Structures are given as structure tokens and as C-alpha cells.
Recover the amino acids of this structure.
């Protein structure tokens, strides 16, 4: 199975997941992976995370934003 196929399989599994404990464990893995990102990206993600919900941009395509 390719990496792309494995990711799709994991996304499908997470989408159907109902166990809150498992979701918290996955979130822990996600947060720990931030240590591997460059500081500039981590800071950008932290800024985006601190923005109020009403000021977020809803989009489906980066190309639409960059037009």
C-alpha cells in the first residue's frame, strides 16, 4: 500500500471514529509532531489557532484565495 493510500485509509478511519479517548491520543500525536516543524510554521499555526471563529476564512481551494 502506498503512503497516499495509507493516509486515505487513516482519514476514513478517523472520520468514522467515535471513541473520545482514541481521538485524544491522535490529537496528542498531532501536537507532538509540531516539534518537527520549522518555528515559523508553528508560530503561524499558533496565530491562526488563536483567531476568533468569526474572523476565519472559509475556503475549499487555495487557488481561490490566491486569485
Amino acid at each position: 500500500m502506498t503512503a497516499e493510500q495509507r493516509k486515505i485509509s487513516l482519514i476514513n478511519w478517523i472520520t468514522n471514529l467515535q471513541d473520545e479517548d482514541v481521538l485524544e491520543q491522535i490529537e496528542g500525536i498531532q501536537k507532538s509532531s509540531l516539534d518537527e516543524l520549522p518555528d515559523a510554521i508553528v508560530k503561524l499555526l499558533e496565530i491562526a489557532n488563536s483567531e476568533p471563529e468569526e474572523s476565519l476564512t472559509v475556503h475549499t481551494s487555495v487557488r481561490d484565495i490566491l486569485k
In short: The two ends are 36 Å apart (CA to CA).
